[in-house]
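Backbone-to-sequence.
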């Protein structure tokens, strides 16, 4: 068995991490270790392109939409068809999906549930009249958001708590957050909600992070859930998220300052924001992560400027920030 390391959202890696991965890939070639970086085309910046180009064993693979001529075979294999449908059927799906496999599958499901695509005696038929007026899904984000309407009020509330935690969350953190918000539930009830959300393709289990870990399939789901909250409730939710992490990592707080700072920066608890932004700046400095140093140092300086508490120490920080930019 050869190990495989998979890193999603590779555009978020800092220069030092990218350099380390390239060093490993160049020096572990004979071990058979495989390192896979996943990134959207729009996030593939010049910095990452240049870094990857320095690796002699680097291979780039693009996951592109299916070509029009391939879609017929793709649909036929899904439906286990022996004979083809009329070309208009395939053309309609292609025009609205533009070759996206997820949109193709989603539209096939909708066609079936709306009796446009009918299975009779193990034979597939198409209602041509309904097909002409059928409202195809053409936007992946809209498809994701539609799935939220399947959830009841209680299930939506639980998923909103998860959304406040972030793209990745654990059952343990979700349970603790629910308890702090006076919505304590039995773990079995929580699992039922999570299982339904997995089934409806809103979230997925994060097998790499271990049992009880999950992630959202789209940031737009998180945005839609949080947008339903008013400003005050958002503040409460992020405050409690920060407290959950503080308690969870109190013995190793220095290793988790970035995560805690993220939540407090979305609240109005100025003292906590200042404290964790300072810690995060120092942590980033230890790691030589310049972009993070600039970000957190800017937060510290902004705090003092807004509070009109600029002194000699803050002037020194402003000078440091200037040298980093």
């Amino acid at each position: 068995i050869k190990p495989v390391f998979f890193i999603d959202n590779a555009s978020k890696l800092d220069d030092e991490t990218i350099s380390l991965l390239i060093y490993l890939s160049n020096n572990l070639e004979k071990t058979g270790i495989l390192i896979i970086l996943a990134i959207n085309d729009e996030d593939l910046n010049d910095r990452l392109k240049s870094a990857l180009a320095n690796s002699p064993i680097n291979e780039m693979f693009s996951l592109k939409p299916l070509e029009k001529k391939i879609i017929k075979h793709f649909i036929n294999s899904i439906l286990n068809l022996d004979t083809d449908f009329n070309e208009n059927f395939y053309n309609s799906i292609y025009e609205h999906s533009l070759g996206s496999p997820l949109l193709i599958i989603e539209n096939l499901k909708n066609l079936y549930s709306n009796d446009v695509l009918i299975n009779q005696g193990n034979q597939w038929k198409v209602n041509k009249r309904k097909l002409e007026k059928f409202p195809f899904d053409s936007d992946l984000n809209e498809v994701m958001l539609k799935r939220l309407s399947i959830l009841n009020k209680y299930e939506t509330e639980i998923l909103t708590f998860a959304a406040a935690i972030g793209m990745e969350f654990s059952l343990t953190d979700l349970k603790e957050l629910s308890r702090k918000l006076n919505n304590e539930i039995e773990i079995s009830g929580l699992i039922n909600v999570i299982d339904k959300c997995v089934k409806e393709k809103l979230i997925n289990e994060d097998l790499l992070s271990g049992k009880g870990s999950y992630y959202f399939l789209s940031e737009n789901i998180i945005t839609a859930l949080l947008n339903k909250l008013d400003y005050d409730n958002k503040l409460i939710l992020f405050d409690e998220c920060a407290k959950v992490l503080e308690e969870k990592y109190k013995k190793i707080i220095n290793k988790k300052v970035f995560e805690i700072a993220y939540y407090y920066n979305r609240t109005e608890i100025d003292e906590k924001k200042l404290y964790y932004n300072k810690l995060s700046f120092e942590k980033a400095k230890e790691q030589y992560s310049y972009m993070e140093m600039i970000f957190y140092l800017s937060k510290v300086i902004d705090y003092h400027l807004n509070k009109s508490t600029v002194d000699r120490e803050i002037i020194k920080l402003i000078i440091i920030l200037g040298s980093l930019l």
